[in-house]
Amino acid sequence: MRTKGLTDYVAWPLYHTLGKRHLITFATDRPGGFEEAHIAALKKLLPVLALVSEIRIKNRLARTLLETYVGAHAGELILAGATRRGTGTTVRAAIMICDLRDFTKISDNWPRDDVIDLLNDYFDAMSEPIARHGGEILKFIGDGLLAIFPLSQPNACANLLHAVTEARAAMVALNERNNGSGRAPLNYGIGVHVGDVMYGNIGPRPPRRTLATPGAIAPRCRAAIRPPLPTRSSCWRRR
Q: Transmembrane segments in this chain: where (predicted)?
C-alpha cells in the first residue's frame, strides 16, 4: 500500500442476513492517515453499505441463477416482472434441437456414474459452441436440448450453423476419446428451423416455460435424419 502512496487503512465486517458476513476496507493517502472523526463517519455508513451490498450481491446471484436455469433472455424477462400466468413474449429465432440416439439402451446398461459423465461430456460438446456463437439454451429435455438464436442478432442463422459445425467436431473428438476407453461411439441427431418462439408462463406456480409454434417441426426434422447429420426444415431452406 505504501508503494501506491497510501498512508492508512481500516477494515470492518459487513453483516448480511442469514448469518452471512463480508468485509469492507477503506484506505487514504492523507498525510497522517485517518483521524478519529473520519473513522467515526465511516462507521456510520456501515449499516447502509451492508444493505446496499447485500441487495447488489443478491441481484447478481438471482441473475446468475436465472441465466443458468432458464437462459439469459427469459431471465431478463423474469427480472423485469413478466411472471403473471398466461403472459408471453414472441421471439423470431433460428432454432436448434438435438438429442442422443439409443440413450435408453445406454442408461439401462451403463453404470449410473458413467451415464452422468456421458451426459456431461455430450452437453459440453453441444452447449459450448451454442454459447460461443450467441445462442441461448432454453431447456434440456432428457438427453436433448432446445436452443435459439434470436434473429434480432446479426447473422443469427449463420451463427447457428457455425455452432452446429463446432458441436459436430466436438462430438467427433468425444467419440474418439470414448473409443480409446472402450466405449461405443455416441450417435445423435440435430434439427434446425426458423420460426416464432413464445416465452410464456404456465402452470400453478407458475414455472417458466417455452411454447414454440414451430416446436413440433424441429423434432420432426431431428427424428427424420440419420445421425449424426443435421437436417433443415423447409422454412429454413426458403431463407
A: none
